[in-house]
């Protein structure tokens, strides 16, 4: 996966039972982003695997002032990559984590 | 560490906190 300069991780342990995830995103390499942002702050948010989309969350972050609009795609991609990994992990593990 | 809460108009809550030093070093 292309390095966006952003890091997204689970903010809480995934118990695999909930469709809602707690994720945390922060800037790892500010040089890879086009806009100005704070690289010492992490943003924690919930992401519902069934109803939310990475683009929607990225848009909300841009509108909330965390990122510049030009970085919206990078933010969405970072979230999507992490969510994809989490979904694949859940598929591999039998019921219950 | 200080926490700041930002609520988007769509209702999603963003909680801002400092990135722990250890995570910055890892990356």
List keywords for this structure.
heterodimer, A: 97 residues, alpha+beta, three-stranded antiparallel sheet, B: alpha+beta, 22% helix, elongated
Please describe what this structure looks like:
The complex is a heterodimer of chains A (97) and B (27). Chain A has 97 residues and is α+β, with helices and mostly antiparallel strands. Chain A has helices at 54-63, 72-92, and strands at residues 6-10, 20-27, 41-48. A three-stranded antiparallel sheet of chain A has the order 1-2-3, covered by helices on one side. The radius of gyration of chain A is 14 Å and the shape is elongated. With 27 residues, chain B is an alpha+beta fold. In chain B, 22% of the residues lie in helices and 37% in strands. A two-stranded antiparallel sheet of chain B has the order 1-2. The longest helix of chain B is centred in the C-terminal third of the chain and has 6 residues, at 21-26. The two termini of chain B are 20 Å apart. Chains A and B meet through β3 and α1 of A and β2 of B. β3 of chain A pairs antiparallel with β2 of chain B, so a sheet runs across the interface.
For the biggest sheet of chain B, the summary is: 2 strands, antiparallel
- Number of helical segments of chain B? 1
Mean pLDDT of chain B: 76
**Share in β-strands of chain B:** 35-45%
Summarize the structure.
The complex is a heterodimer of chains A (97) and B (27). By secondary structure, chain A is of the alpha+beta class.
Set out the fold topology.
The complex is a heterodimer of chains A (97) and B (27).
Chain A: E1 6-10, E2 20-27, E3 41-48, H1 54-63, H2 72-92
Antiparallel strand pairs in A: 1-2, 2-3
Chain B: E1 4-7, E2 13-18, H1 21-26
Antiparallel strand pairs in B: 1-2
């Amino acid at each position: 996966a292309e390095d966006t300069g952003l890091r997204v991780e689970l903010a809480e342990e995934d118990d695999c039972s909930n469709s809602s995830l707690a994720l945390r995103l922060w800037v790892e390499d500010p040089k890879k982003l086009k806009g100005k942002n704070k690289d010492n702050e992490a943003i924690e948010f919930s992401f519902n695997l069934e109803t939310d989309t990475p683009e929607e969350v990225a848009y909300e972050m841009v509108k909330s002032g965390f990122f510049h609009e030009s970085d919206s795609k990078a933010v969405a991609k970072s979230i999507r990559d992490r969510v994809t990994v989490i979904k694949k992990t859940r598929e591999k593990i039998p019921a219950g984590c | 560490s200080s926490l700041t809460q930002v609520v988007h108009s769509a209702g999603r809550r963003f909680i801002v906190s400092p990135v722990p030093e250890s995570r910055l070093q890892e990356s």
